[in-house]
Each structure stands twice: as structure tokens, then as C-alpha cells.
Amino acid sequence: YTTYEHTLDRRAREAQMKRFCKAQAIQRRLEEIEVTFRELEQQGIKLEKLLRDENGSPADQQTQWTNQLLYLVQKKNSLMTEESDLMIAVQELKLEEQQRQLDKKLRSYMNREDTLKTPEDCKAEQEILAQLLKVVDERNLLIHIQEERRLSEM
């Protein structure tokens, strides 16, 4: 190995470790969101029961319960949006890893001299390149979806 190859390997390991840490953080946050969803659901059920059962309650008490229920709905919608963003991030991480692997394979074919390549090698190189372009397009689509969502939220 040359110094250049060692540097490439080290950078690849560092990038892979960053993706792994990011994936773990996303997984933890998704689990937290799931727990919060359950808590919000329980609070919502209690408030709905109060609103249905307490017809004799003062109007301002019912208004307060209704406002609390609306707040819970807003919070749940906010968490759903965050969850959706995290799922897109997970998909992006998967595509990033797939792109890295394909890129590595493609480099190994491209580093060979053309005179030493068999027709099968040339075909495999073209297939890997096509797969790599497909992954790049999928990543681009994810970014486009995220941008559209952000613009629509504004």
C-alpha cells in the first residue's frame, strides 16, 4: 500500500464510523419519538374522555381541555414530521453506504489497465457504473423531497 491508499482507507473508515454514529443517534431519536407518541396518545385519550363525560363542567374547563387536546395534536404532528425526516436520513445513510461500496468496486476495475481487462471485467465495470448512477439519482431524489417539504412548511 502506498501512503495515498492508506489515507483513502483511513478516510473511508472515518466516514463509515461517522455514518454509524449518525445511524445510532437517529435510531435513539426514533425510539424516543415512539415513546412520546404513546405518552401523547394516553394523554389524548384522557382528555377525550374528560370532554365526553364532563358535560356539566364549566365552559372554560371544557375550553381548556379542548386547547390541551389541540396542543397534543400539534405536538404529535410535529413529531410525525420529525420522524419522517429521520426516516429520510436513514434512507440517505443507506444510499451513502451503498454508493461508497460501489465506488470502491468501480475504482478497483478502473485501476486495472485496459489491456488486462477481460470482456467480463468491462461488462462488470459498466454494470457497477450504472448502479452507482442509480444510487446517486436516488440520493438526489431524497434531497429534492426534503427541499420540497421544507419549502412547503414555510
TrEMBL record:
Transmembrane region(s): none
Keywords: Coiled coil, Membrane, Monooxygenase, Oxidoreductase
BMERB domain ranges (all copies): 13-154
Compartments where located: Membrane
GO molecular function: monooxygenase activity
SMART domains to which the protein is assigned, alphabetical: DUF3585
Pfam family, one: bMERB_dom
Stretches assigned to coiled coil: 23-50
The UniProt record lists the keyword Cell division: no
Entry-linked PANTHER family: [F-ACTIN]-MONOOXYGENASE MICAL1, CALPONIN HOMOLOGY DOMAIN-CONTAINING PROTEIN DDB_G0272472-RELATED
Name of the protein in question: MICA1 monooxygenase
Organism: Smithornis capensis
